[in-house]
Design a protein that fits this description.
By secondary structure, this protein is an alpha/beta fold. It has 6 helices and 11 strands.
């Protein structure tokens, strides 16, 4: 059975369509995940859900234990991972309420552990195309169908670059204007190092970005406020859940994307130089490649 993970961002703290729901705690070598995982079925698909900020939204973006979150998904058998993320728009034609199926990231974070490796083992995964193309296409089609059916939202954008900032403060106007010169399409605080860690864990990853505001580059617009963001997030949270439900039934059991074998030629350390402690800590990730 295909196992699909979903990480819910601001305003999305559950998947209410699930059947046979259970809550699962996962211990990881990297500490505690954001919350207990919620497992269940959606049709014939096994689903694993985690609220990125914890239920009640109590964890700031830079406080999220991204390594534990992704390790836990891997431990629960997740091979496909959908990120639902609130973002600010950096383009006039991406309006609040729009959906963007991003295909690139710029990592502008500063103080977040971004790899499972180190401490006795070196690995370098390819990350030129950070999003799973097959999963992104399935989500794009599902989003377009939901919007066309009157399910909510404004427009769906095919592709875009998501700049991940450190936060927790929103951008200065100077920063926002600079990012626009880089060709950035949306901005947020959470998809890095999440996407990098998913690739190291050989999990296929894609983002449904929900535009909530125009950041602060648009001078005729009022400055970004939590109230404005939350209002749009609440409006689109149910739409995001329906997109996931529509997409989940189409996700194949077999994977044909680089994430599926990301570690195959990535581990640089000689097997005889890898300690028993490292093998135990990272066995979930490396056992099939390190004998």
């Amino acid at each position: 059975m295909t196992t699909v993970g979903v990480i819910g961002g601001s305003g999305i703290y559950d998947l209410d369509q699930l059947q046979d729901v259970e809550e699962v705690s996962v211990d990881t070598p990297f500490g505690a995940p954001s919350d207990r995982y919620i497992t269940g079925r959606l049709g014939g698909v096994k689903m694993v859900f985690l609220p990125r900020h914890g239920r009640g939204h109590r964890i700031l973006p830079h406080e999220i234990n991204y390594r534990a979150n992704i390790y836990g998904m891997k431990a629960l058998g997740v091979e496909w991972l959908i990120s639902l993320s609130a973002v600010g728009s950096m383009r006039e034609d991406i309006r609040p309420g729009d959906i963007v199926l991003v295909d690139q990231f710029i990592d502008w974070t500063r103080r977040r552990p971004s790899t499972f490796f180190g401490d006795g083992i070196a690995a370098h995964v390819a990350f030129g195309d950070p999003v799973s193309a097959p999963l992104r296409r399935i989500l794009l089609d599902a989003a377009r169908e939901e919007v066309a059916a009157g399910g909510g939202g404004e427009r769906v954008h095919d592709g875009g670059t998501y700049l991940v900032m450190e936060g927790p403060q929103f951008s200065t106007r100077g920063e926002s204007l600079l990012y626009r010169t880089w060709g950035v399409d949306v901005i947020g605080m959470t998809n890095m190092p999440e996407a990098k860690l998913a690739r190291e864990a050989e999990i296929s990853y894609a983002t449904v970005a929900l535009a909530t505001d125009y950041d602060c580059w648009r001078e005729e617009e009022e400055a970004v406020t939590v109230d404005a963001v939350v209002a749009i997030v609440r409006k689109n949270a149910e739409l995001a859940r329906r997109i996931v439900a529509r997409a989940a039934a189409r996700i194949p059991a077999e994977r044909d994307c680089p994430a599926a074998t990301a570690l195959q030629n990535a581990i640089m350390t000689s097997p005889d130089a890898i300690s028993a402690e490292v093998r135990e800590r990272l066995g979930l990730l490396i056992a099939k490649y390190v004998r």
